[in-house]
Design brief:
heterotrimer, A alpha+beta (425), B mainly alpha (276), C mainly alpha (328), A: 425 residues, alpha+beta, D-Maltodextrin-Binding Protein, domain 2, 2 domains, 6-stranded mixed β-sheet, 4-stranded mixed β-sheet, 18 helices, 43% helix, 15% strand, B: 276 residues, mainly alpha, MetI-like fold, 12 helices, disordered C terminus, transport (chain C)
């Protein structure tokens, strides 16, 4: 091993002067030629897990057929995406099209990094669902196109629930709690995997309580975490978190909760429907055991409040392929492919007319009842700064879970929260 | 001079305890990497893996572009180290052997340069490279890594150059060599251990660097191994088997290089480099 | 992550600098024969590289620190000067001073531990028999050679809340509350892990170099000391310590720099958390600047960080300055 390595280094060393220390930027000309867009490649950033391989393949094929240009999908991680996106948008070759979270869109719209998509809205966006398009609008201009939306459900392991003697899925919060307790008592499994910082779920709970995370103070926004309604949401979270052995200071992505669930020793977790895919990838045998149900609310007639997460597609203002990028959006957001995405991932499409694609989809059927009562974080440019690590809301959650009272925890993070909300733009 | 039994025993006992303490994390990394997952997440640790599996290594190296990362890392690291050695050798020779105005200033200057906290200047470096249209290239990485290791290399080599007896050089010059020839034929061979041990430091530094490459090179074609290793935290979650396999692979070149070169480095050192 | 968080291989550091103070005559003669410009020419590449690759980013950083540079300005390449606003905001805030104090304490604790334990291990090496010494050396070299990124990952695994071997051992030793302990849950426990990691990786450098240095102490010095009736401790303080002093100064200087800049370890173990309580200056600069996309502010903190590091090492730099003066 040693000798081999040394000789490998020697060879590489010889190559240095010849080949190394070089790199180039790939793409040559970016102008749209007379012969369609042949020879060009469009770079599209999509988030990890948000669009299935099948969809990417189909869209790429259709795009290539129509424009003669190629498309390159690059998968991005949510962790650190804002820092990466900001620098990328300032570069000569930014990604031409990229997925951007709905809570982050207003901030980027304000930076001037996103191209105006007014004509796209006219040509294909007339019947976009208004509430879903809200985050793409800033100052009355269309800075992104709504892509898909989703809310969290409970994903559970049918085998473990059967083992614990549970037949029906719970209809109220208390029933859910009792069921999970029963799993803890009757099986070796961990009843629920709920890390301390699944803050999107917490945001959902605050929406269920009718609480606001920020309030207006004169011209600016300030923390509203001290609101007793926020505290009530946190108490609910804490009660369920106590049933989990998950770390109190980590979010649902470190480690990926789907992967933990995939090991087969966890009763349930709260997540996006597509997270089942992560579990299946980790352990294909788990596929037939996964079930879904709506997160139950305080009473049976009203499901829990949920965070209506979603993503928009935007075009970089600095992209030299504006027209081609719009061509891509027209295809990706066409009824055919928007419908396909909804069908494959069980997510809410950007038009009501496409919701028929969700019929028979177990995830979508579990998610749908709660979606009506869903909400988002405040759609203000100031919000994006809050989500940068260390997110003060996550800090608040961990503090409460570690024994602080919600009021104390709110006071603890208030300065940081307000600082971010008032951060100079 | 005879010591009591206790006097002879305690240094050895302490040494054994220390040995275990220093080696254990390294051992545990390799042991975990070779253990089947069931043994990794067991209530009682499996101290000595009996079922050896290569599954984790397969997973770690099965990532797209793995070999691109390896090649890039090797190129950048070797280029940076070689460049730094060449530049530093010239400079350190001047600092160690010549008397000239401002010499002190140069020494202090390199000491200051050695203190540069690079990770806090990332954005400034990024903007420079961006505005020079050199993103996603290995060139800026190489030269910046070279700079990161240059001051230490100069200052260390200066010590090694100074340790070569002046008389040898003079003798060569008496024999008709020019100063440059004397340097090449007499000093350079004697400096070999010094060059090796110094290059080790450079190798480790460049091999490890990741905040800069993270922001400069967004295209996978121009990324390096540390990014691959750090991505395991998110991509593989708490899959400690794969993570430890990746860490092992990342550490092995350095460990081998170190064990190989360290002996010479220390022998070079004890041969008289240190003359307090 | 960068250079100096690494353990360098054994080098003679700057201890060797006195070796050059031999007869200056021949050197001077040779230099004059080649022309007085030779040393400058030899130093030219190094200086050019330093100015271009370090000086320029540094200057850029200083310029950025006087700008309002956030997402919008970065994306649109807009330069918005805002005078000393960034400095005003940083220096009047409580955070900066708290982080500075924490950084200094963190550096002090680590460096003291490293120097004392490192020196003890070094002296132990000198006392061991050959076989034992080689064994311990191998252990030290392995720890020293571990790349920081890999070592940090391994420590996360050792101290993992679930299935981490440290928690298991503590539990078996009767400390049952530690069975499921989360080491990243509090400020002190996070610092504990980081400190163990840094000290573990740094001791070998000090120990091996110190051992190498002790082997060069002429044995006549000890003989003379024992003739004067010095005991073990006395010969240590009168012979060993003075002999090693320059080495100890130089090593302490390097350790101060490395520990102060230990970005990777702190950032990777817990991202400066919980609740930003383990942020040291470089981490703070990174989180405020890059993390919060408040780049101008980050640049200002970076400049202040550099000044503080200069302050911390000023004492040593003065010694070097004096020393070099004597030699010229």
């Amino acid at each position: 091993m040693k000798r081999k390595l040394i000789s490998a280094i020697g060879v590489a060393g010889m190559m240095i002067s010849l080949a190394a220390c070089g790199g180039d930027n790939g793409d040559g000309g970016d102008k749209a030629g007379a012969d369609g867009y042949a020879g060009q490649t469009l770079t599209v950033w999509v988030m990890d897990g948000s669009s299935p391989d099948q969809w990417q393949k189909d869209v790429a094929a259709a795009f290539e057929k129509q424009t003669k240009a190629k498309v390159k999908f690059e998968i991005q991680q949510w962790n650190g995406i804002q820092q990466k996106l900001t620098t990328a948008l300032s570069e000569e070759n930014p990604p031409d099209v990229f997925e951007i979270g709905n809570t982050q869109t207003p901030a980027y719209a304000k930076t001037g990094g996103l191209a105006d998509l007014a004509d796209l809205k006219t040509s294909i966006g007339a019947d976009w669902t208004e509430s879903l398009n809200e985050s793409s609008l800033y100052d009355g201009k269309q800075y992104a196109a709504p892509w898909y939306f989703a809310n969290r459900v409970v994903l559970y392991n049918k085998k473990i629930w059967a083992e614990a003697g549970l037949k029906d899925t719970p209809k109220t919060r208390d029933e859910l709690y009792a069921d999970l307790k029963q799993i803890g008592e009757k099986t070796d499994a961990e009843p629920i995997y709920l890390p301390g910082q699944n803050w999107y779920h917490f945001v959902g709970l605050t929406i269920g309580e009718g609480a606001e995370l920020v309030k207006k103070d004169g011209d600016s926004y300030v923390s509203n975490l001290a609101d007793p309604k926020v505290a009530a949401a946190m108490e609910t979270y804490k009660k369920f978190q106590a049933l989990s052995k998950a770390p109190k200071d980590k979010d649902e992505a470190t480690p990926q909760q789907g992967e933990v669930f995939g090991k087969g020793n966890v009763g349930a977790f709260i997540g996006m429907g597509w997270e089942a895919g992560i579990a299946i990838k980790a352990n294909p045998k788990i596929e037939k055991e996964i079930g879904y149900f709506t997160i139950p609310g305080a009473t049976a007639d009203k499901p829990e409040g949920v965070f209506l997460g979603g993503s928009n597609l935007a075009v970089a203002a600095g992209s030299e392929k504006q027209e081609l990028a719009k061509e891509f959006l027209k295809i990706a957001l066409s009824d055919k492919y928007e419908g396909e995405l909804a069908k494959l991932n069980g997510v809410i499409p950007n038009k009501e007319s496409l919701q028929t694609n969700l019929k028979g989809n177990v995830v979508a059927e579990a998610a749908a009842p709660a979606a009506a009562g869903g909400g988002t974080t405040p759609l203000i440019p100031e919000w994006a700064a809050v989500e940068n690590a260390p997110n003060p809301i996550k800090t608040y959650m961990t503090a409460v879970l570690n024994g602080k009272s919600p009021a104390e925890a709110a006071a603890q993070v208030e300065d940081e929260f307000n600082k971010r909300l008032s951060q100079q733009q | 001079m005879k010591r009591s039994l206790f006097g002879r025993l305690w240094p050895n006992v302490t040494a054994v305890v220390l040995f275990i303490g220093f080696v254990f994390p390294v051992y545990w990394m390799f042991a975990t990497a070779f253990k089947p997952t069931g043994d990794i997440i067991s209530e009682d640790p499996v101290w000595f893996p009996t079922d050896i599996t290569f599954e984790h290594f397969k997973r770690a190296t099965g990532v797209d572009h793995f070999w691109t990362y390896v090649t890039n890392s090797l190129i950048v690291t070797l280029c940076a180290v070689v460049l730094a050695l060449v530049i530093a050798l010239a400079g350190s020779f001047a600092l160690a052997r010549m008397r000239f105005k401002g010499r002190r200033g140069f020494v202090i200057g390199f000491m200051l340069a050695q203190m540069a906290p690079w990770e806090v200047m990332i954005i400034a470096m990024y903007m420079i490279v961006r505005d020079a249209s050199m993103l996603n290239s290995l060139v800026p990485l190489t030269v910046f890594y070279m700079m990161m290791i240059l001051p230490f290399t100069i200052l260390t080599l200066r010590g090694f150059v100074a340790a070569v007896p002046r008389e040898l050089e003079e003798a060569a010059m008496v024999d008709g060599c020019t100063r440059a020839q004397a340097f090449r034929k007499v000093i350079l061979p004697l400096l070999a251990p010094g060059l090796m041990s110094t290059s080790l430091f450079g190798f480790i530094t460049a091999w490890n660097e990741f905040p800069l490459v993270l922001v400069l090179n967004k295209e996978t074609e121009a990324q390096t191994l540390p990014l691959w290793l750090s991505s395991f935290q998110t991509a593989f979650g708490n899959d400690w088997g794969a993570t430890m396999a990746a860490s092992s692979l990342f550490a092995i070149p350095i460990l081998i290089l170190f064990v190989f070169l360290q002996r010479r480095a220390v022998s070079g050192l004890t041969a008289g480099a240190v003359k307090g | 992550m960068t250079v100096q968080t690494e353990r360098p291989p054994s080098g003679p550091v700057d201890v060797a600098k006195r070796a050059e103070s031999g007869p200056a005559g021949p050197g001077r003669r040779a230099a004059s024969r080649l022309g007085p410009l030779t040393p400058y020419l030899l130093l030219l590449p190094a200086c050019a590289a330093t100015v271009l690759l370090l000086g320029w980013p540094l200057l850029k950083d200083v310029l950025l620190s006087f700008q309002n540079l956030n997402m919008a300005q970065l994306i649109q390449h807009v330069t918005e000067w805002n005078g000393i606003d960034n400095y005003k905001e940083v220096l009047t805030g409580e955070d900066f001073w708290r982080v500075t104090l924490r950084s200094i304490l963190f550096t002090a604790v680590n460096v003291v531990l490293i120097m004392i334990l490192g020196a003890l291990v070094g002296l132990l090496l000198a006392r061991l028999g050959r076989r034992m010494r080689v064994t311990l050396m191998i252990g030290l070299v392995l720890a020293w050679a571990m790349p920081v990124v890999a070592a940090t990952t391994v420590y996360q695994w050792l101290f993992a809340q679930r299935f981490g071997v440290v928690n298991w051992v503590l539990d078996k030793l009767g400390w049952h509350s530690m069975a499921d302990y989360s080491w990243t849950s509090s400020q002190m426990s996070t610092f504990f892990v980081v400190t163990v990691l840094i000290v573990w990786q740094s001791i070998p450098f000090v120990a091996i170099n110190l051992y190498a240095a002790t082997t060069t102490i002429p044995s006549e010095l000890y003989e003379a000391a024992s003739l004067d009736g010095a005991g073990g401790w006395q010969s240590f303080t009168t012979v060993t310590l003075p002999f090693l002093r320059p080495f100890l100064y130089a090593t302490t200087f390097l350790e101060v720099i490395w520990v102060f800049k230990a970005f990777v370890q702190v950032f990777t173990i817990n991202g400066g958390g919980p609740d930003r309580l383990t942020e040291i200056l470089p981490v703070y600069a990174y989180i405020e600047g890059v993390g919060n996309q408040h780049y101008g502010m980050g640049a200002a903190i970076a400049v202040l960080t550099i000044l503080i590091l200069l302050g911390l090492t000023a004492y040593y730099l003065r010694i070097v300055l004096k020393q070099e003066e004597e030699e010229v």
